[in-house]
């Protein structure tokens, strides 16, 4: 958390909010800051129009007001949807999906620790049977997070069957939360996306799926939207996890993702440590983003 | 995003009302530049780069070269394309090997960029070229990265040096250093050092990377970057340039639908060339980077050259010669048609191929719903014909068609559609074979080649490139007819059912024709 300031917009915005009045360059600076934070041309335009209207309405010329309005505007957009995780079923099955290399396995490790601190028993299912050594990577994380793990019985086993066995294991042993790791897949691969639907179908035969979390990398650009749309269609995503926020990327594209799809952000990951995962609070996020 | 269509379509739209005007005004150009700016931002090109870029384009677009062009929209796209290629490095660069082996290659990048997978691909590629690569597991950070590299090395069939178990144990600098000595004694001629993923802002880890670099003095330092990365590409690339001073860039995950504007940002900010592109999860999905093709991709112009290359490598040359012979002697039969289709399937996923065609960006959804089993159905229909029927499609009268439809589990409409398609294809091939112009799409300047024509044709962009207006007209007509006949006969429901297949088969046949021609010479 020591480096949170680095992903904030405050650096880019500092100059403009310390000026005495709002002028044309303020707007240009604001546009620049939003675009470089990956908000994308559409959301940037919408946010700026919105702020323009507000500034006109309240007849303010103080950039500090603008900063406050920007923060409120972002917070308002983010808090439109319910960001709480719903894990009330027993067992509560959570499917973790995403493209390659966004941090699904790491997120699961951190998430199991996160749940463990609330006194929940957790089992993770290593349904990423594709990537080399993914199962071992998950096992290490599970150990760190104090969770049990269900491994595939043989090399290249069908991921859906691993998922099935994991839920089965949880039911037999009375474990409260099931986290299922899936292989990373690009949203353009139809066959792999169908596999995801299959995992979902198979798991649902045993227990209802509580949450499907789509992991998105904060460094992703406008392609994040395409990813979200495809995963929503095939996996029925119910929440987003934004990872790698400890870098210099700001993940502005999630605003567009949330707005276009109506799926809320539920967790944020900010580092490689086991504790670097927190629930998502719009207020805090907006605060950090705008500074 | 796809909803906006591709840039050239958008520009055409902007210019639509200007056709009657003799020249472009500054405000017309500004509108265009705004579109370009938006397209580039949508493609995740960094804002600073976009600004500089649009400035240049604006200047050139206002100059005479556009005003004199017949189709200003296309001319502007051409300018944009040229400028993109210029920034992306103009031409390919190859890996540089050391005079005294071993050649040391170091990989660096963010977490999840695909370094470990790339290490495997690179080693396999080098091994195929007769090198003896050694993979070095210097990612001791991520849980079981060492295990992953071991598995990857095994799949690629290359040696690995992994003295430390990883998971936070061991000193990567030491491992990297020792590996060089190890490679020397064991006579490996290339050493590929896989390092841990790190964030640009993590000073400590960047220091470690720079220490590794100092310790092994690599001949190439490859910066692996995800094609999906957004505006952060610039900062990350700069941080890595300062930290490890990479000599080349590898763009990974290009098989997704990200436009990969990051490539442009990185190349323009750091001035380092992009050497490789990584395009899939298999160890063979790896190719040298082509700046010109990337430019087209960023603009959503499609990747015809790659398509043609794939086609070329999949075609058996002898068979191609025999086929070319057939075209010219006018004995192209349904059997050949079937054989070609089967060959097409060898070329890999048709979806993938179609995705490379220009203008298909906006057809992604239809593409997704396009069923490759359509080809299997076509096969079934052809195989339900007697040998005589296959040799001579004119034999096919009503009752024969009914029998074929029953035999293949299809309907007469479908059989009719297939026969029509075949006849179109055969006709087209004859034209080509008899000294017609080889219509290799994308050979000429892509944008200029569009016969400025009707909106209908644009998504396919398959217009003839013949210099002779009369020939162009007839060939275009043949094309249009080919697509249309398929669409008309499509059984209701999805526009990409059989009709879609027909639409796609017709141009492919045409392409085949040109390919055969190409190979035959």
Can you walk through the features of this model?
Chain A: It is found in: Cell membrane; Cytoplasm. Chain A: It is a peripheral membrane protein. The complex is a heterodimer of chains A (291) and B (521). Chain A has 291 residues and is an alpha/beta fold. Chain A contains eleven helices and eight strands. In chain A, 49% of the residues lie in helices and 15% in strands. In chain A, helix 9 (223-235) links the parallel strand 5 (209-217) and strand 6. Chain A has two domains: 4-78, SRP54, nucleotide-binding domain (Four Helix Bundle (Hemerythrin (Met), subunit A), Up-down Bundle); 92-290, Rossmann fold (3-Layer(aba) Sandwich). Chain A has an eight-stranded mixed β-sheet with strand order 3-2-4-1-5-6-7-8, with helices on both faces. In chain A, helix 1 (10-17) packs antiparallel against helix 2 and helix 8 packs across helix 9. The longest helix of chain A is centred in the N-terminal third of the chain and has 19 residues, at 40-58. Chain B has 521 residues and is an alpha/beta fold. Chain B has three domains: 2-87, Four Helix Bundle (Hemerythrin (Met), subunit A) (Up-down Bundle), CATH 1.20.120; 103-296, P-loop containing nucleotide triphosphate hydrolases (Rossmann fold), CATH 3.40.50; 305-520, Orthogonal Bundle (434 Repressor (Amino-terminal Domain)). Chain B is 56% helix and 8% strand. Chain B has helices spanning 7-15, 26-42, 47-62, 64-67, 72-87, 115-128, 145-156, 172-186, 203-216, 233-244, 261-270, 291-298, 304-314, 317-328, 334-346, 350-355, 364-369, 373-383, 387-391, 398-408, 412-433, 446-449, 469-489, 498-520, and strands at 103-109, 133-138, 159-161, 190-195, 220-226, 248-252, 274-278, 286-288. In chain B, strands 3-2-4-1-5-6-7-8 form an eight-stranded mixed β-sheet, with helices on both faces. The longest helix of chain B is centred in the C-terminal third of the chain and has 23 residues, at 498-520. At the A-B interface, helix 2, helix 6 and helix 9 of A face helix 2, helix 7 and helix 10 of B.
